[in-house]
Task: structure prediction
Amino acid sequence: MLLILFFVGSLARLLWLDEIPMGLHQDEAYSAYNSWAVMKYGIDSYGYTRPVYYTVWGSGMSVLYSYFTMPFFALFGVHTWTIRLPQAIWGSLSILVMYGLGQELFRSRWMSVFFAGLLAVNPWHIQQSRVGLDCNLAVPMLLTAVYFLCRYLNGKSKSMWGAAFFFGLTLYSYALTWILVPALLFLSFLFFWDKLKFDRNFWLPLGLLFLMACPLLVFLAVNFDWIEEIRNSFFSIPKLPQLRTGEIGLHGWQIKKRFLDLMRMLLRQHDDRWWISNETVGSYYYISTPFILLGILYHIRVFIKGIISRMKFALHFILALWFGVAVALGSMLDQVYFHKVNYIHIPIIMYTGIGIWCLGKFLKHEKGMAWMACGTYACCFGYFVYTQLTFPVNYEAYGQPGLSHMNWYQYEEALGLADELTDGPVAVLGLNYANVMLYEQIPPEEYQSTVVYEEEGQAFGNVCSIGRYHFDIYPGAETEWTVFVYPYSMESFFLEQGYHTVYADKCYGVAWRE
Result:
């Protein structure tokens, strides 16, 4: 059953990576560009040699996913599917890790398979496994780290090395884990103090984790202006134009509002980012809501009972610690989206399984309840796959990069046609500059020497032009000579201006004058 789930789940994550989701997220594009630039030239777009943290828009981006894509770029070239392949592979392997985590927490083979099945068919996990964002990599890294931590707490002392290593990798996948990881480790050691053995298999792995975290600690020291940035021929620790510390609020009224926003989003099971959450069937399936709540109530009961009777907590209570830290961190964020709180979803999926087990135990038919749930979720999964394969594309509105940061589908052909029409300036509308940099494979030295910013030193600085590519310039007296790459809905505008137009594909066109 586990092998069948792994096979089906892997197909759902690996097939048609270049087409579903359609389009390329601007963060995907910039991460891929830096991966290609560091692989080929040894420097990123800002000229830093193998940095521990990218500067990108001006506010930074984690580097781990970019480094993971380099072997695939070297073997197969830069394509949408090679950009997304590392995430899809890790997403598939997470099904097996989820099985192992279930075994460590509950010592039940059928529950472990059930947890793996819930993850294999989960809409959110499938969708996030098909988008090559840096923050998405935090999900498999953190899941694997917790699995090894639970093995250690179950007496397998050498597993602490695996926990330390994957917690260390987690830190390089998403900046918010810089708070999450130490908080989760502290609470885990506090609640399961009796399971710790203070020997070399405890202290040495913690030393490894500290060494892995040191470059990021130095990065924080640089960006808080305590020391100068570090640049040499081996690696760099950059000073960002702006550090995004303002996104976290600690005032009471802020936390209350953001906590309510987080709860609303989780209960709705979607946000306005269609590519990472699912409004049609629900990101966990809408039928899961009562089971999730039941699973959370079960751990609340365990906590209260443990405090009153001073009992030792069972290891599965580590899920409550994980969920609690994730909720607390999510309640500090100014804008809550599914991908920003991706560290919260694995406990929620497992709470679905715990809730079904609780109901089955109450009815005295745990396995029967599990088999009924399997049939129900199989039907839900079938409908989810159908909706993904028949996604209705409205080419006049699809993409909305200003809202979802997902740029329109198949812009590459339009850029190629524009390059054939002129060796001079090209104006690009409705497309992020990172996508142009990636497609044109602009060398990082050329980017640095030709880029013009609307206003430098911003967390999200707008780029006016890179070399001959100009962004968001419209026809006028000073741009009569320009070839335009424009989104689908602007064709009538260019025709009225007397331009020749041609569709390079279904989403973009090219306009020019003789």
Q: What stands out?
A: The radius of gyration is 24 Å. DSSP finds 20 helices and nine strands in the chain.
